[in-house]
Structure formats: structure tokens, C-alpha cells
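for the record, two folds in this file. i put them one after another cuz i was lazy. first one right below, seq on top, C-alpha cells after. the second one comes after a little note so u can tell where it starts
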Amino acid sequence: MKDPYRVLNVPRNADPALIKQSYRKLAKILHPDRNPGNPQAEQRFREVSEAYDLLSDRAKRARYDRGEIDAQGRPRHPFRGFEFAGDPQRAEGIFGRMFGGAFGRGHGGPGGENFGSGGAAFGFEDLRRRAERTASASAREARRRGADRRLRLEVDFVTAARGGRQRLDLGLGRTVEVSIPAGAAHGDTLRLKGQGETGALGGPPGDVLVEIAVRPHPVFTRKDHDVHVELPISVPEAVLGASVAVPTIDGPVRMTVPAGSNSGRTLRLKGRGIGAPDGQRGDQYVRLLVVLPESGDPELEQWARRRSYDVRRDHEPR
């Protein structure tokens, strides 16, 4: 895999917040649901997910930066430590058994190098490097990471806004409890490490990528981190003002409707919205809807006849 820093388009000294921000931006653009039938986008999405998996893990990132593991989390130089402390005779004995005694007998190598007297150190290093490359290639071919799986999890509006836990069926009789972070938005993807397909020949398992699908709410709608609701009020409440109960994601709260309020007037409940990554919360905006009583109210009809007024004056052409 490519360098994870380049995959996420972040500098090597990027802090975790910048890495997460870049990952979420790229994942939203490259998500398979937004690019159906596009194998290039699917491959790029997989690379972005794997890069974030490595860089979001502090220990893995530190080992990668030190050169101990590669971009896929595998140890580098599996033959490191296979040294003979400058002892050509020991090397000659071991490699002689490995290569049919050719090592140290004056046989020339493929490039004409002499593995015998005076050339043992060079010959050993050459063979060691070749053996390392062969073993590494064989190990990569044999031990393959399991494939990732993609699942969809429907979450109600309030759970997505406030955070919570929900069971997810992985199939084959397996279920897990998924932690929904507060402020989860429709289309966000959660990663369940090690819950994907089994790896080949002892390779690590893949992950499960869970796409969040937030169900619409009959009262609440979301815009960024703010919550919007429409609240019906009666004519007396609109004319005289009142203290009314308003639903919020945390439960009902009391709010004052100012006297003389019209339909369409919007009031704000500060800090009653959805939590943001910086720890702040959005607001809730309440749009008032004045609702007339059922027809047949004689007092209201008499009031209307006595209090006729022009509400469309400002809409007349001039």
C-alpha cells in the first residue's frame, strides 16, 4: 500500500484531529454508495480506510514512523537479526548445506562473483538478501489479510444525536454491540476491527465497515449541528404570549412564546442541538405555527368580524 500520509493527504506531523478530518472528507467522497460500479473509487476508498486504520492507532503510527512496520502493519525485514557477526566460516557452513556445498568452493555466482576464498562475505550478503526477498514474497503471498465487509445499520435520530449502543447482526449467528458516537450523521462509517473475513493461512482478519443510516424523525430535522422543529401554538398563546413545552433531543423543556407572535417566527434554544467534535453543542431553532381552533367557534367569528385588518398590504404591486 502507498504511504498512508500521502493517501490521506496530510503532513507527517499531522495531529489526530487533522488526520480524522481528512479521512472523513475523503471517505464521504469515495464511499461505494456514492460511486456505484466504480472500481477505482472502491480501491481508493479501501486505501483511505487502511491508511486511517494505521495512522489513527498511536502505537502503529509510531512503529511505522520508526520503520518497524510497513503501510499494511507488517514487520519490515523479517530476516533482521539473521547475522553471523562477521564469521564467514559459520556462514559458509550454513549456506553450504542450503546450496549444496557451492558456497565457499570457488563457484561463481550469477553475476560472476566468487563465493570462495576472499569473497565469502560478499557472497553471504548477496545470498542473504536474496533469501530475505524470497521469504518476504512467500510470506506475503501465503498470509493474506481477510477481506473487509460492509454493513448498514439503521439508527434512530435521537440515538445518532446523543450517542448510544445498538446491536448489529453480522450473520452466521454472530452479533456485536456497536457504539454510536454522539453526533453521528447519516452516511458516516464506523470500523469494527477484526470482525471481517478470516485471513488466509493465519493472516489477520479483515474489518467490518458499518455505514450509519439515520431514520427521519417526525419532529426533529438536522442542519449541521443544529436541530430544527416546528411547534404549533394556539391563537391565545400567540396573542397573549405563553410558556409552552418544547421537545428537544434531551427531553421537553419550557420556552416563552412572546406576546404577538406570528406563524413563521423562529425562537432559539441555545445549546440544545447536537454535540460537535470540539465539545460544543449546536442550538435548537423553534419555528412557531399558529393554529386556529376548529370552525364553528362563535366568539372567534365575532372577533374576526370586528377586527378585520389588511395583512397583504405590503404585497400589492406599486
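(here's the note) second protein begins now
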Amino acid sequence: MPNLRPFRQVSENDVINLFAHATATDLNKGTLVVPSVGWLNTNEPLAEVGSPGASYANTVSNRYATVAKVTTAGTGEAPLGMTLYDIKETDENGEKLIFNPRKAAEMQVVLSGQTVPIATRGIFLYSGATLASETPAVNTKLYCGANGELTTGVASNVKVAVALGGKDTNNHVLIYLDCAAGGNS
């Protein structure tokens, strides 16, 4: 499962804030994503998706979601970028984050249906199960693997990043991500 550590260097010009994840209720930051429902200027930006919790007769409590969607990238796909926030519904105590937006912001979490920031370029300290089982070295090309994870993988896949160093004792790798224009093979 991918994850980003706090050490990073990213410009806001390289972050896209237009898409929500299509299916995830739990997704880690650092997941590579591809567009599934495109963004259109003529579309309504939000759609009603139901209630935030229990619904009761004679009450109105709507929950809205971003219409444009991304899904988790798979092996060989050219990702749009990497998610910068987790997608979760509850905190560590099982409390719904929809009722505590300040805590969600502090945790760097968005709810399912909310717009998730997606980085297309930057330097990140990355850890993932796939990369942890491999041995990347400095200047190793990294590709989009299964479940939106980075891998040293197959050269026929789309190159999305470069390792700026080897794997440390915590299985973290400093990477330079560059997903501009659907890959840079």
C-alpha cells in the first residue's frame, strides 16, 4: 500500500484540484490515479450523493460530491498524478469526519466524493509495499505498477518517476515524480 511521508517539495502549479476518486472510501496518499470521468466546463461541478449519515422523515440533509472522477491506476497505465491526501470516512476512533472538517484538514484527509489534490510533479519521500520488496538505486526509473503503486517494474510500462536515492532502513525512497502529459518515457 503506497504512502507519502511528510518530506516533500511540490509547487501548487503542479497540483490538480478538480477530481474526486470514483470508488475509494479508504485510499492512501501516494496512490497513482487516472481520469475516469472527465471534467467539463458545461457540467455542474457537484452532484447530490445522498445523506451524510442516517436519514429521517421530514428532514433534508444532503451530501454532495465532485462530478469529475479519477480511479486508481493499474499496471502500464499513464497516470495523471499521485494523490496528496488520504481518502477516509472516519478517524482513528471511528468518528465520522464529515461532522468534523477541521480534524479532517489536520489529518490531511478528504472524504469520498470530495476533491482530492493530485500532484503531477514534485519530490516526495515515498514508501510502498511493491517498492519495498525491490531494490531501487539512485537514478532508477520507476513505473506505474498494480494498485497505483510505484515499481522498478517493466520498461514497457510508463515511466512516472526516478529514484533520487536508494531505499533506507524504513523502506522509504526519495523520488522525483513527473507525470506531465501522461508519462515521460
